Structure formats: structure tokens, C-alpha cells
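Input (structure):
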């Protein structure tokens, strides 16, 4: 395997084509002959190859939502288990934390790849990571990568090396940002509780008002598809909102008892008689809490 190193390779420009994974490895761009991530758990990941192995990937050329490895029945097959931040995923996480450059290569298997072989597409940086429920219902590690070049510059450099049917992706952010939200609903819930957290009863004052969050119990957008409805919203302080979204605790759907939250274990969620909540949303959130415990 080639020498492990970060950054731009000395002898190859963006857009260089290689006829095989072996040739890519020999060039020092991506060492492993099969794995999509080239990384070390204590140093970071220096390179990835995109070849269409995961259903949750999004590729807009200059922007990539890249799914980590693991959890499939066979390579490129069905997702049957949760992914964790270990091995290559942990290496990519380290690259994010230390702002390390990641080389990106696209294979002929994907729509934004070359007609044949593998194309080196330059340096990207990871600007966000997450572990979320994927399309198959299991936790996947996802990495948001942005090219150091603009989409216009990339298209110019790669001209003649893209598939003949290449079309620039219409800009749409992650699906949750496209869900129609009614901003009046969270405001209504916050006003109902006087901007007090339903967990801790805390009211955080600010000049001219108070700070609170109208939090959806079952998140909007894919893959959760929760409704933007009063029955799916509770009022939380910023701290407990962050913990609730991170599945650090859950609310029992039958008793409204708080479970898993230090200092509030067994206490009941404050619930107004004017506020009807669908218990199914608490049950859904509990399932994600149970999975998150195994991170």
C-alpha cells in the first residue's frame, strides 16, 4: 500500500483518471484496494472513494453527504445493523475535529463519476458529522464534505471528464430544511407555558422576553417524518432541548415520567390541560433513546 499522507498528491492534478483501484493505490491517492475510507484511528482519514455503496449518500459535486462504513450484510448490500464511530468512521471524525484535508475520488459507478475508471476530484473538508437514522432504519455515521473549489470551478476543471448526462444538482438543502413549518405553533406552546421548560420549570430571561424552544418530539423530515402539529411539540429550555434531541433522556408515554436524566429521574413532565400530546411520538423518541444508549 502507498505511503499514508494528507493533502494534494505531488504528481497528479484534479481530474486525473485511473483505470482501476490498484492504479489509484499505486499513485498514492487512495491506498486500500477495496475500502472506501483510507484512515487511521489516531491520525485521521486522508482519502475517500465514492462508488455507490450506500443508499444515504448525497453527491452534488462540490458538496457530499458521505455515509461511513459498516452495518451491511455484504459490501454494497442491505443495511442490517447500526454504524458506530469506529475504525474508518472514527478516522473521518478525527479529520473533522482537526480540520484535516480529505482527498475525494469518484468511481464510474455513480452519476457524478467518470464514464470509466476512477477520477481524482481534489481536496474536501468535513464541516459537520452526525449519527442519525438512515433510510433503512438503522443509525449511520454521516459526514458533510465541502470542496475547497466552487461548483463552477470544479465543473470547468472536470469538463470532458464527467458523464455525458451530467447535470448540476438543483440546490436543495437536507430534507428537514425543506419541510413546511408553521412558526406560530412553537410560539403558541411556549406562550402556553410562559416560556418555562416542561422538564425543569426554568424560565430563562433575556432583554425584552425569555428564551425557550418549541421542540418537536418526533423530528420533522426524513427519516422521521414527524408532523408539524401541536400534539408533537413541547416547550424546553435550550439545555434540555439539546439533550432531548441527542436522546439523552426520554418521556414515558403513559406516565409522562422523565427517564434517564440526572436530577429529574422519575419526575413528571409538566403538562397543561390545554395541551394534548400524542403518546406515539414519545414512544418513537424512546426507541431512538434505546438505540443511542449503544453508541
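Output (sequence):
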Amino acid at each position: 500500500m502507498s505511503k499514508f499522507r494528507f493533502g494534494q498528491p505531488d504528481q497528479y492534478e484534479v481530474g486525473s483518471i485511473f483505470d482501476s483501484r490498484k492504479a489509484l493505490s499505486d499513485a498514492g491517492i487512495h491506498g486500500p484496494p477495496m475500502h472506501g475510507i483510507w484512515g487511521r484511528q489516531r491520525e485521521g482519514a486522508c482519502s475517500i472513494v465514492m462508488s455507490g455503496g450506500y443508499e444515504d449518500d448525497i453527491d452534488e459535486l462540490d458538496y457530499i453527504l458521505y455515509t461511513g462504513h459498516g452495518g451491511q450484510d455484504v459490501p454494497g448490500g442491505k443495511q442490517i445493523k447500526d454504524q458506530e464511530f469506529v475504525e474508518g468512521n472514527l478516522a473521518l471524525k478525527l479529520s473533522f475535529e482537526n480540520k484535516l484535508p480529505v482527498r475525494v475520488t469518484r468511481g464510474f459507478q455513480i452519476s457524478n463519476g467518470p464514464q470509466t475508471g476512477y477520477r481524482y476530484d481534489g481536496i474536501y473538508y468535513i464541516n459537520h458529522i452526525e449519527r442519525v437514522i438512515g433510510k433503512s432504519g438503522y443509525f449511520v455515521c454521516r459526514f458533510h464534505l465541502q470542496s475547497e473549489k466552487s461548483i463552477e470551478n470544479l465543473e470547468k476543471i472536470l469538463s470532458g471528464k464527467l458523464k455525458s448526462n451530467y447535470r448540476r444538482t438543483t440546490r436543495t438543502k437536507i430534507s428537514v430544511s425543506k419541510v413546511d413549518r408553521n412558526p406560530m405553533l412553537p410560539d403558541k406552546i411556549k406562550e402556553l407555558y410562559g416560556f418555562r421548560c416542561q422538564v425543569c420549570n426554568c424560565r430563562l430571561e433575556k432583554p425584552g422576553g425569555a428564551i425557550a424552544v418549541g421542540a418537536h418530539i418526533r423530528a420533522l423530515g426524513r427519516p422521521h417524518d414527524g408532523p408539524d402539529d401541536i400534539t408533537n411539540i413541547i416547550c424546553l429550555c435550550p439545555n434540555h432541548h439539546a439533550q432531548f434531541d441527542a436522546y439523552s433522556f426520554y418521556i414515558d408515554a403513559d406516565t409522562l415520567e422523565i427517564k434517564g436524566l440526572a436530577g429529574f429521574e422519575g419526575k413528571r413532565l409538566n403538562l397543561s390541560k390545554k395541551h394534548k400530546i400524542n403518546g406515539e411520538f414519545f414512544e418513537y423518541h424512546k426507541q431512538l433513546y434505546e438505540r443511542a444508549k449503544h453508541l
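Notes: The radius of gyration is 23 Å. The longest helix spans residues 279-292.
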